[in-house]
Design brief:
Blueprint lengths: L4 E6 L6 H8 L5 E4 L1 H4 L2 H10 L8 H18 L4 E5 L5 H14 L4 E2 L2 E4 L2 H10 L1 E2 L33 E2 L5 H24 L5 E4 L4 H18 L1
Parallel strand pairs: 1-3, 1-4, 1-5, 2-3, 5-8
Antiparallel strand pairs: 6-7
Helix pairs in contact: 1-8, 4-5, 5-7
This protein binds zinc ion.
Zinc ion (ZN) binds next to loops.
Protein name: Adenylate kinase-like kinase
Organism: Frankia torreyi
Keywords: Kinase, Transferase
């Protein structure tokens, strides 16, 4: 099955991008691109140290990681849908992504989705979400993926029983910086997609994860069968 739909998942920190991407990625024909997972550990460590706590990556690193990943996905031909978790993160990265897709997977549909939620819910999600250092072996010890708590003990990981921790980037000062970065970059991201004639679908994530996932699936199905 050739790669048919690319879904950039956009939105502010803590809106629920990673949770939603993980959920959608459980479908057999769907894979999730997470930039951090595609960058060599040494490069990630250098980025974490050199670009401040926000961990910004240079264009060459991003382009190399993206090309390698897409090339593998296209060759494997098993994935119909690629979700880009929190990517692209800037207008330049939009151009990068569209360029790589055009050369490696021509004819695919690009369906960017911008998630939003009210400010109170956003803050609550950032305060409540937890990660697991044991289940997610992050090379710079900064796990990002939302962990599910155990039914018996909300402080412990439902998978390995380890103690859950807040995400490093959710500390109030960092979260403010990440929110500010999103607000700064969002206009450029929207402009680049608009310039390419690609509409961004907007989706409110106040409802349940199941409802939001169903809404995304419906969008993907509608777009991939239209032509
Ligand atoms: Zn765990």
């Amino acid at each position: 099955m050739p790669l048919a739909v690319a879904v950039p998942m956009l939105g502010p920190p803590a809106v629920g991008k990673s949770t939603l991407a993980s959920r959608l990625g459980q479908a057999p024909n769907c894979v999730v691109f997470r930039l951090r997972e595609q960058v060599p550990a040494g490069r990630l460590a250098a980025t974490a140290g050199g670009a401040g706590p926000l961990g910004w990556m240079d264009d060459v690193t991003v382009a190399t990681a993206l090309r390698r990943y897409l090339d593998r996905v296209v060759r494997a031909a098993g994935a119909h849908v690629v979700i880009f978790d929190n990517f692209p993160g800037s207008g330049r990265q939009v151009r990068l992504l569209l360029g790589e897709l055009a050369s490696l997977a021509p004819g695919r549909v690009v369906l960017p989705i911008e998630l939003s939620v009210d400010a109170v819910t956003l803050r609550r999600r950032a305060v409540q979400r937890r990660v697991c250092h044991r289940c997610e072996r992050d090379p710079v010890r900064d796990p990002r993926l939302p962990a599910k708590a155990s039914d018996e003990d909300a402080q412990r990981c439902g998978r390995c029983g380890g103690v859950l921790q807040p995400r490093r980037g959710d500390a109030p000062r960092l979260l403010r910086a990440r929110l500010a970065r999103w607000q700064r970059e969002a206009a450029g991201i929207r402009d680049e997609f608009a310039a390419a004639g690609i509409a961004i679908s907007r989706l409110d994530t106040t409802g349940s994860l199941a409802d939001t996932a169903a809404a995304v699936s419906a969008l993907v199905t509608a777009r991939s069968t239209r032509r």
